[in-house]
Fold:
Amino acid sequence: MKVLLINPLTLEDSMVNITPNLGLGYLAAALRDNGFEVEIWDGVKKNMTKQKLEDRLNMGDYQVAGFQTYTRSAREVQAGLEKVKSINPDAITVIGGPHSSGDPEGSMKYLKTDYAFRGEAEIGLVQLLKNVSGDDAMEYEDINNLIWRKNGNVVCNPLKPIEDLDIVGIPAWDLINPNDYPYAPIGAFSKKTPLTSISSTRGCPYSCTFCANNTIMGRKVRARSAEIVLKEMELLHDKYGVREFQIIDDNFTSKKSLTLGVCKGIIDRGWDISLSFPNGVRLSTLDEEILALLERAGCYSLGLGIESGSPRTLKNMKKAQSVEEIKKQVNLIHRVTKIRTTGFFIIGYPTEKKEDILQTIQLSKELPIDRAQFTICLPVPGSEMTEQMIKEGKLKDVDFSDISFQNIVHVPEDMTMKELKKYRTKAYMEFYLRLRIILGLLSEIQSLEHVKFIFRRVKKLFS
Structure:
């Protein structure tokens, strides 16, 4: 049985952050380990286009088509599903990813697919395909994280996280070779090339209302062993020439044994590499020991989930950190290391007033951070905030396929769309138009290609 795994988004969709597709890489490894033939079609690789995807689907030499589904890619996924069925009605179609995890019933209703998964699918997809191929007569109710139909009704099997992440192994890096992707680092900046992203943990114990992470991956943080993370890094370093690793999970520093084990392993191997955390780390997990070892291991950049400078908004977000704690931890990083920091801020949270946004802008300027990202609040499916907004009738007639960090789909009650955009512009202008910040950014420019990439990001942000 041949399985074609697909990310239908391409560079034509104006994507700015591009990294090897870890999700599909893990799935491919699990399927190959169980005897399936697997191909990955990742639309954000170099020279990929929507026409090339259509041409690939038209070949019809596969029995299973699995689509990675983000909320913003729902339209492209639906078009792909229809194309597959028009070519071969007997082909099995499966979707998975953040969208089907956050809205399982809606995904099965509106995306005409045979099956879907929520959360992790490395075990469940293997179980499903063995079942439909006749190799294993397993009951559908027992397949991990499966979303399916029974007598016309959508059934969502219980979310069952994978407890021992080491059994998942290492992604199929030969199918997602880092050198096949364009230069487009998460966070816009990098120190070395080639670079790639890796992941070391899954799950999140925190209750931030704007995030759907624990809906997708569960509340328990599960960590890979330091040994297998280092084994993966060694493969990437030696075989693919990777010299910068962007660690993209939010909870790497939540498991201190993992953090120290990986950092000591890098130091012991004498690698001349760089580490960055562009998706952010939890401030409360940082201490002097962790920070010192991160820097020795090559860490030069940390994203920080600050979110707001308003005590009221932080409370409503269930962020479980105070403004005073934020200041203390950011100053700790600045005091004991030379690691550059990016503060992540959210403006336009549903309960926010104008004064809350002004407090956030002021805090961004008071903190000794080097970069800032001001995101207008995004109602992602599956988050507590989104569910509450739907319940209160605040998200009527929203096309979730239009949701992205560049599109504004909700404005707080005492603001207009124009005012919210004005506050975002004000935040960026007041933060970045300072000599210290400008000189710091100029020092990080790597090449003319890097300059062009940054301008593309800025243009996309304000378009």
Observations:
- Residues 185-462 form a domain with the pyruvate-formate lyase- activating enzyme fold (CATH 3.80.30.20).
